[in-house]
Inverse folding.
């Protein structure tokens, strides 16, 4: 059992012991439950702090959140979790996009960075590395979800759940709704302020990057992987998995986290 705190109307759950906090940020179409097995593995040594992204709790009204608003919210969570110390960020999918932006603009508040399956996704190097087919696949599913968000309602929900099935999302369909799609609308339709002017991913702190190698395309460039792997204290780990590493390969995923977090750097 953990303790909960309400920050900006969102329940923030804290579990585990230790002086160091790990703040976990999920992506689409997940909730804080994505990290259940991860918290079980890490909480004996670290305080694990997690929440469901604004608008991703289907029991609550839609809550499209801009990049600036998300950074401000994460900052309040970090201030609560860190207790005056920098934290480790553990990020997946859209949680990477939002969390990286926070880390790049608040480097003094992030001691370590863990990215899962999304690296320098928006960079020119990644775009150059993608094949035409991969670019088409990415645009197809993301535009579909963006348009579902624009349509909304029951039709939008059906569109969203249909795409989730095609992408083999490990989330029950009843827990997936169109209100979760606003990041795709931000990316492709300029909704909620869009995503222009995002800071490039150039971490100043040690970083662990884990990615699934059994996918038709990657959200990182080979050059970025090489650069990161060569940095002292940083590490790159590939698992024979799809996008949801912590669900598909939980034991390997948790071992990689524990090994890196416990290393001297």
């Amino acid at each position: 059992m953990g303790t909960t705190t309400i920050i900006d109307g969102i329940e923030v759950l804290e579990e585990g012991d230790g002086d160091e906090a790990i703040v976990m940020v999920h992506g689409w179409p997940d909730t804080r439950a994505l990290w259940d097995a991860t918290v079980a593995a890490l909480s004996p040594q670290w305080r694990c702090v997690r929440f469901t992204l604004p608008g991703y709790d289907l029991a609550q009204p839609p809550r499209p959140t801009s990049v600036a608003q998300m950074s401000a919210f994460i900052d309040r969570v970090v201030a609560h979790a860190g207790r005056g110390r920098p934290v480790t960020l553990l990020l997946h999918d859209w949680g990477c996009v939002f969390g990286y932006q926070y880390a790049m603009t608040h480097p003094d508040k992030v001691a370590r960075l863990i990215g899962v399956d999304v690296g320098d996704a928006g960079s020119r190097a990644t775009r150059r590395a993608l094949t035409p087919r991969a670019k088409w696949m990415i645009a197809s599913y993301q535009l579909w979800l963006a348009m579902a968000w624009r349509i909304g309602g029951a039709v939008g929900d059906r569109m969203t759940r249909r795409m989730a099935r095609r992408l083999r999302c490990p989330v029950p369909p009843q827990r997936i709704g169109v209100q979760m799609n606003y990041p795709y609308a931000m990316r492709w339709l300029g909704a909620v302020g869009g995503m222009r002017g995002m800071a490039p991913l150039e971490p100043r702190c040690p970083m662990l990057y884990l990615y699934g190698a059994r996918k038709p395309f990657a959200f990182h460039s080979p050059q970025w992987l090489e650069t990161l792997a060569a940095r002292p204290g940083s590490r790159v780990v590939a698992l024979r998995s799809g996008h949801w590493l912590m669900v598909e390969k939980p034991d390997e995923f948790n071992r990689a986290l524990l090994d890196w977090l416990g290393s001297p750097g």
In short: The beta strands are 3-7, 10-15, 21-25, 47-51, 87-92, 110-116, 207-212, 235-239. The chain has a mean pLDDT of 96. The chain has ten helices and eight strands.
